[in-house]
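User: Can you help me understand a structure? I only have the sequence.
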Amino acid sequence: MQVTGNQNSAFLIFSASPGRKSSPAKKNLQEKIAAVQETPTIKRDILFNAFSKSRNNVPTLEAVGTVALFRAEDALKFLSLRKDSPQSSIVEDLDKTSRFRDLRINRLNDLKNSLTNLQSRVSRLQQKDALNIRQGKSSKPEVVQVSAGKNSPRTNFSVRVSRLAQENVLVSDEQTAPLGSLGLSGSFFVNGSKVTVEASDSIFDIRNKINFGEDLNNNGILDGPEDLNENNILDTYSVAATEFGPGVFVNEDLNGNGTLDPSEDANNNDRLDGGTTETNVVASVQGNRLVLTSLAGKDTGINLRDDDNVLLSLGFFERDGKGNPVLKERQFDSDKPGVNLIKNSQNAEIEVNGATATSLSNIFQNVVEDTTLTVKQVSQRQAQISLFIDTTEVAAQIKSLFRQFNDSVITLNDILAQSRIFANDKDIQKIRNDLTGPSQAKTRELSQRNRDIDAVRGSTENRKLLGIDIKNTQKNRVQEQSVLGVVQALKSGKTLSLQGGVRNLIQRLTSIGIRTLEDDTFTVDTGKLNRALNINTDEVLDLFNNPENGILTLLDKQLNRILDSGLGDIVLKKQEISLGISSFSGLVPDKLRQLKESIAYTGLVKNLIAVA
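Assistant: Let's start by predicting it. Here is the structure, written out as tokens:
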């Protein structure tokens, strides 16, 4: 490589074209430069990435110095302007025609639909256990079902269900006139919460008092007295709307029952008391009986206190041989002879390989590591449970994800480099870079590592196998001599400066660097992927699920921004096309744009000083 007219030791190197053999002198120089630049790489990249050409990898550049960055950026801008300047008025006005605008809008809609499908796929795979190769199978799913977690062991065991969990259920006697008043008055307590009964109450009224407590109208608000002016009359206030303000309408009968109701706060403590929220008991009416069901847990019973014998009259209590009221233990129905309607609370119980385990519900967690057992019915016969690895479903989901991702990338490649509907459009190029760059970075790194391993491993198996790679990752490359030579030739009036002509080089500099429609798409070797999921499980799944740099995490972030319905990239681009402008940046007033550029340049200089 030659560097002409440069007295400064800091300069920019463009990688040589593939296949060209480097001279020993050049190789030695590159090694020295790499050694010097090894430590401050991060600082260098801060400055280097400030240039759009470098950041977009158009073409692939390698920075060694800082001053050369300004010279290279200036050269690339000159070439881009040179390429655009000779266009005819017909070409320049093409994007202003309605048919061409419609075509661009239609292709954006195609891209949006593809990206939306990709977003849906990403969202599904981000759900818990979506990419889980651990599977479980029960020989008796009608008795016990199994769900394996990501850390479930590969094992087999037996389960026998000896008891299901049961909440406490208390049932009253059957009422002959359930809709009529019971003629009972007084109070009783449900799990310590007082319920007051009036002579006019039916079992439905008592049910509501147990469920809602002081919240008589079940609106979740502690209501005050309806008689706002305390005149013992239901009043309605109405003021017609005028030019000075809206009208007013107030009806004191808030619940529409035709009576003036007092405040719901019976004990004046400024809060709603009682109800299911406080008692953990829900009341219902079934078969003309009042039924109380505990919600506090399978091992927690319902505590009743009946000072005024209201519950005794309803049939929840009965008198023992000494005349004392005691809670009934049996309640039978003529329609179900021999079936006790009263249920005592109890835990579920199973035997796993002969060892007893209990649970407050019919779901057993972690009796076996990261495994859930759900019992359905009691059985004296054992169910055989198998925990194993099955990569088929996960591999199919990964291939489906990449199939949709590749569809989106191919659509972008087409409108940028094949059909060229958005050729050289920086906004569309940015969408492509944002979609492929971050999400594929880890895959590129691991794929290169595996290529290095394969080069030296011999006949031994690569235990770091992935089965995933990126297609056609090498971009067009040019040398610094070529770029500077073209610029000098153009400025001196020459038309050709290198093989292939100026137009070829300019096209390479201003395109996205796409060579085929499949550039930067994922490739999957199904056999290797299934093998990798067995021997390199954690790394393969981390490639997708890592909360910082996982493929799903990064795709979700980028797609949310690109597809945002308010200020997303697609929406803004469609607005630009509809308004007939080249970029929203053109709407910024000249002075404001100059100020923005000045601030950006000042920040760039500060970075340069920091690097120096």
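Now, to help you interpret it: The mean pLDDT is 76. The radius of gyration is 38 Å. Let me know which part you'd like to focus on.
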